[in-house]
Amino acid sequence: MRKISMMIAVVLAFTLILAACGKSNGGNTTPSPSPSSTPSDTSSAPPAEDDITQKKVSISIYYPTPDRVEDRALEDDKIRRFNEVFPNVEVIKSDWQYNPNEIGIKMGANEAPTLFNTYASEGKFLAEKGWAADITDLFNAYQYKDQMNPILQDLFTVNGKVYGIAQRGYPTGVTVNKKMLEDKGIAIPSFDWTWDDMLNTAKAASDPNAGISGIAPMGKGNESGWNWTNFLFTAGGDILKVEDGKIKSTFNSDAGMKALEYYDKLKWEANAIPQDWALGWGDAVGAFAQGRTAMVIAGPDGPVDQALNQGGMTPDDILVYPIPAYEKGGKHYGVLGGDFLVINPNATKDEQAIAFYYATFDYFSDKGLESLERNIQERQGQNKFYVPAVFQYFKPDAEYGAKVTALFNKYDNVYQYGEETMKLIDGKAESPYNTQDFYGAMTNVIQEVFSKKGVDMKVQLENTAKFMQEKFYDTIQP
């Protein structure tokens, strides 16, 4: 009870600051969350009618998909503990998963959750469309804002305003079935590997007659273009540039051609990709977990989690690599991705404030650590692993980071990323302009390359650059 009272007091202080911020911005105030911790000097307290604990407030939240059983258990525990502090708040679980093709419809119909999950590329898009609440005042009043991981949090800061809350992130990497390579007598490549190393390993591991591929690059959905962009980056290219106040496509470059030619080699020279190559994220990661491919390109925690908890593999069976460098000594750039929480701008001020409290409820919290430890222990009892993200919402050198590391080191069922991988893996941010449209457009090109031998890749790349330029980039004022 003492810890809960202390938490209420902290939240009270937080919201009193918010109230002051709100009064200087149009007169909106953020109500106090707890009457029991209201100071005796009521002259500085908000009016009783603004006390959030005296109002019945409902928020809908992002809730993990049914296949993520352990994550749902964590969320359920968080809801229970949140309602101990905010018993007046109804927390509604939303089964909607963010989709860039659906968000406009959801917003227009006022059906989007109060708090929803999105990914790293969407900050500027959602801010400019007016589909993410400006939470700058809430964030600036947050006592731990300076301990948030800037690698992630800065992705949702647009023109000096904050539009999202970082959860976890990663540079895209390559997860490798080490056991499959060893069983086939294939040499384990160096972590400081190159495109040629990946190609040769994939070719050696591929067994089309047995339905096993050396690598499963994603071939459908926007994730296909996302996978390919890692090779554009490591070849030294970029999606676009801003020059003289205009945006210009740059992926139709020598680097873009090298990346396309590499995909062509994986398919037609090495015969290393699945025969049915039209795989989305779930298909490709599932193929890895089931032992039907030796390598998959993704944020590392997803394929590792499925391989260990659904595929029956052990930590000794798999390795996490950075994206291979174009040539020896080159950069191991992986597209920087992650999960972020966004607050619905159509929500009331009370709902937005409560959604922010909910989003950050376990951040930098001993209670959050206790919940996480219980989850790890439960997984241990079920012979399951906890797989953390490569990047967390907090700075790695923060005091709280040391607590998390100490917790992880207590349990042998917490997956630990290798030291060599962590030294080499490097993240490169996505373009803030129409990234998902770019991924979708490049998916069409990749499907041409995978389905037809001898495609004129230069023409394909030029046509796609022209499409992106005319349909999107020419209409943007950066």
Automatic annotation (TrEMBL):
Residues 1-19 form the signal peptide. It comes from the Bacteria. Keywords: Signal. It holds the Pfam family SBP_bac_1. Residues 29-47 have a biased composition (Low complexity). Residues 26-50 are annotated as: Disordered. InterPro entries: Bact_solute-bd_prot1, SBP. This is Extracellular solute-binding protein.
